[in-house]
Amino acid sequence: MINTSVGCPEIGGPGRRAEARRKLGRAGATVPHTGLKQWLIVKNFETLFAELQDRAVNRPEGSGTVAALDAGVHSQGKKVLEEAGEVWLAAEHESDESLAEEISQLLYWVQVLMVGRGLKLEDVYRHL
Question: Which family does it belong to (predicted)?
């Protein structure tokens, strides 16, 4: 998932944006029609997994991830199936951007299911 660092409520003020860039890595992108360079925060698979594990432990109030974990493996599995279907449909009928977005949602739900079952990334990596 890519979030622009400007005006992104999850990232907060300039100090938090700088910290997030250090932790998550940086990628520069030129904003169309302006030629201006804007920093984008790019999460990777490991960063997302660490974030989900942190939410499972610290349980921030109002977190959708916490609600998904509390709903249990059956509900999480249904979301994985739903998102997999949306990936397939996007691959058949939508733009690459839409497909990438659907894939990111599938990866999120797969990781929620992994956290819900207590799996680690290494448990999956052993089978790749």
Answer: Belongs to the PRA-PH family.
Q: Go through the chain and tell me how many residues it has.
A: 128
At 101, the amino acid letter reads E
Quick one: how far is CA 23 from the chain centroid? 15
Please tell me whether residues 78 and 56 are part of one structural domain. Answer: yes
φ and ψ at residue 93, rounded to 5 degrees? -130, -5
pLDDT in tens, 20-41: 444 444 454 555 566 665 666 7
pTM: 0.70
Do 73 and 22 sit in the same domain of this protein? no
Mark whether 112 and 79 lie in a shared domain: yes
116: tokens are 């819900």
Element (H, E) at 41: strand 37-42
